[in-house]
Amino acid sequence: MKARLEQIREKAISQITGCESAEKLNEVRVAILGKKGELTNLLKSMKDVAPEERPKVGQMVNEARAEIEKVLEEHKTRMEKVLREARMKAEVIDVTLPAKRAQLGHRHPNTIALEEVERIFVGMGYEVVEGSEVEKDYYNFEALNIPADHPAKDEQDTFYVVSETGDILLRTQTSGVQVHEMEKGRLPIRMIAPGRVFRSDEVDATHSPCFYQIEGLVVDKNITFADLKGTLAEFARALFGEDTKVKFRPHHFPFTEPSAEVDVSCFKCGGKGCRFCKGSGWIEILGCGMVHPHVLEVSGIDPEEYTGFAFGIGLERIALLKYEIDDMRLLYENDIRFLRQF
Fold it and tell me: pTM score, two decimals?
């Protein structure tokens, strides 16, 4: 028994002093002193020792355990000291070195443009309203006077979501938000609806299957086309400069009548003609018109008592024009060299 105890003690001390990590040291402790360790197993064999020898053997076992635990604690303390010194050496700070400049993020060009547009319209008394990107066919098309056989409803242009009813889609415009607001019946309405829209377009310098649109709507008594012209002229001056002029060209949209495309005088050349405006002196920025009476009617508004106007602006187009960006894809490629310019 004594020889076996001495063998366990020497083996334990040798293994402990050879440990280089806390994990390995713990493994040795469990192997020697644990419930199933060598020293514990030796104690279980005390029943085979003669009764008169048990006190002496028990004292020897306790002395061996105490010595092993002492060696364990001393080696653990030495290892912790070495690790602490190594960590402090690695973490030393040279206070004489220049400070590292923090790399902070900032707003995306789209966000900057959107906040400016929102600021302008909020300043004119408009409310900013948001809606769901997943919409019903009724709100995206039918309620906006776009019949079932309209080309815009073709699956080549619209992303439809698989559903039992077949009338769920990713919205192609934020005009559906206007319908939801009109259905609430809280008149008058002065709102803009910014948000992400989806169309089945090929990716190129001016197109993307996912982009941002800002729709505007005003519904009240005695609203005329003159109100629309005045509003958009004020918006153009606030966005592009006080000398900016606007030009309205006849157009067609199913949900407005009459409808128009709006151009602004080139803010680079003042309308003289340059590369930016392709020599015309004018730049197209949005579409607009008076809300079609049928659109008002299906939303529960009496077109005999109320009139309104609506307009739609592509946010990326505003950003491209304002910051003179030639390729829309730059806005989404996350090139830090490009984004740092804003």
Answer: 0.67
